[in-house]
Design brief:
The protein has 109 residues and is an alpha+beta fold. The protein is built from two helices and nine strands; from the N terminus they run βαββββαββββ. It starts with a strand and ends with a strand.
Length: 109
């Protein structure tokens, strides 16, 4: 399961509306790809279609889709949003990551 914090939900809703998506009907697509300074990096985008191999979760009234491969790396992750002075953006709190880079955008297992 992937969870969404209240602050992330607020920002997701705002960005989806600005991008022409609807938080009730459309999805947040999260994934993992090779790259970044720690070996793997996170992906986050909006989507209005679910593929057959996607896993679907809903938390805090946000629908999240993840491809099967990425799901193995993201089990138990909480998506958060920080808008503070030390940086702005989405944060993946991933209990599976053994090492993360300084910017928090990549990790390794």
């Amino acid at each position: 399961m992937i969870k969404v914090s209240k602050t992330a939900k607020t920002k997701i809703t705002q960005l989806m509306e600005e991008g022409g998506f609807n938080v009730v009907n459309d999805f947040v697509r999260v994934g993992v790809k090779s790259g970044g300074c720690s070996g793997l990096s996170y992906e986050l985008d909006f989507d209005n279609s679910k593929k057959e191999e996607d896993k679907l979760f809903e938390d805090n009234n946000v629908k999240i889709i993840v491809d099967k491969k990425s799901f193995l790396y993201l089990i138990g992750t909480t998506l958060e949003y920080s808008g503070g002075l030390n940086g702005k953006g989405f944060i993946f709190n991933n209990p599976n990551a053994n090492r993360t880079c300084g910017c928090g955008e990549s990790f390794s297992l």
